[in-house]
Amino acid sequence: MSRELVQPRAARMRQGAVALGVGAALLLAGCSAGQITQTDTQVAAVNGAAMTQGDIAVRDAQLAYPKDGDFYPQGADAPLIVTIVNTGDNPDKLVSVSSPDASGVRIEGSTELPGHFALRTPLTDPDDAARPGQPAGSPSPSPGAPSPSPAAGNRVSEPGRVEITITGLKYGLRSGQTLRLTFLFQNAGEITMDVPIAAPTAPRTRDAGHGGESSGGGGH
Questions:
Q1: Euclidean distance between the first and final Cα of the chain, in Å?
Q2: Is the pTM above the cut of 0.70?
Q3: Ranges of each domain in the chain
Q4: Do 94 and 185 form a contact (C-beta atoms < 8 A)?
Q5: For 108-124, b where at least 16 C-beta lie within 10 A, e where not — what string?
Q6: Which residues contact 125 (CB under 8 A, 6 or more apart)?
Q7: Which of 30, 38, 123, 167 is the most buried (most CB within 10 A)?
Q8: Which residues contact 50 (CB under 8 A, 6 or more apart)?
Q9: What is the CA radius of gyration of the chain?
Q10: Cα torsion 115, 121, 126, 131: sign
Q11: 3-class DSSP state for residue 161?
């Protein structure tokens, strides 16, 4: 008689433990889903376009914010802000950059991409935007590509400098619109992406605060 009472009671205890385990798993799944959402939000905060093909990664590609406002008129030239990284061991080279919506693209400086090496445009850092003639962060003034350190491993050596300018826009371009660009590499091939206009380097809140009201910023 006592065995019949003990066995159902033990079964109920096992069922309760299983239910608690399922509930804990659901809670953990909910927490991890929240972490994924936070990560997605952080990635989306990056202004520039990014794409990887093979060992070549084009990162944070964007047109410099126009000097005279948020608009590039037809026929204007637009400097490109971009970082290009060779994450592999084999060398590569940036052959050309082209756009169907521009007359051409001018490339000046280093185009060689040894293994574990990066190319950066002068406007990559926000501080450079105010002083486009000065190199930022990189102590090497030489436009040539320095040889990577043998002990670099997976780390990228000091970046090289390259200037890329989109010339002769075929139509006006303003903030919120994108320009299609194709990067051609000697080994990695083509990488095509839609590049946006960068955000202004000076926070707009300063101008709004100076006027007292956000609607009065243009009255100064």
A1: 93
A2: no
A3: 1-45, 49-201
A4: yes
A5: ebbbbbbbbbbbbbbbb
A6: 136, 137
A7: 123
A8: 57, 58, 59, 60, 61, 193
A9: 26
A10: positive
A11: strand
Residue 44: band (very low, low, confident or very high) from pLDDT cuts 50, 70, 90: very low
Q: Where are the beta strands (DSSP E) in the chain?
A: 49-53, 56-63, 71-72, 78-86, 92-98, 102-109, 112-113, 117-120, 160-169, 173-174, 178-185, 189-196
pLDDT band per the 50, 70, 90 thresholds, residue 69: confident
C-beta separation of 196 from 49 below 8 A: yes
Sign (positive or negative) of CA dihedral 121, 127, 128, 133: negative
Rounded Cα distance between 149 and 151, Å, is 5
CATH number for the segment(s) 49-201: 2.60.40.1890
pLDDT at position 204 is 56
Q: What is the four-CA torsion angle of 76, 81, 87, 89, rounded to 10 degrees?
A: 60
Q: What is the pLDDT of residues 76-107, one digit of tens each?
A: 999 999 999 999 999 999 999 999 999 999 99
Sole residue written with tokens 């000097």: 67
Cα distance between residue 195 and residue 58, in whole Å? 11
Separation in Å, CA 149 to CA 89, 111, 157: 12, 18, 7
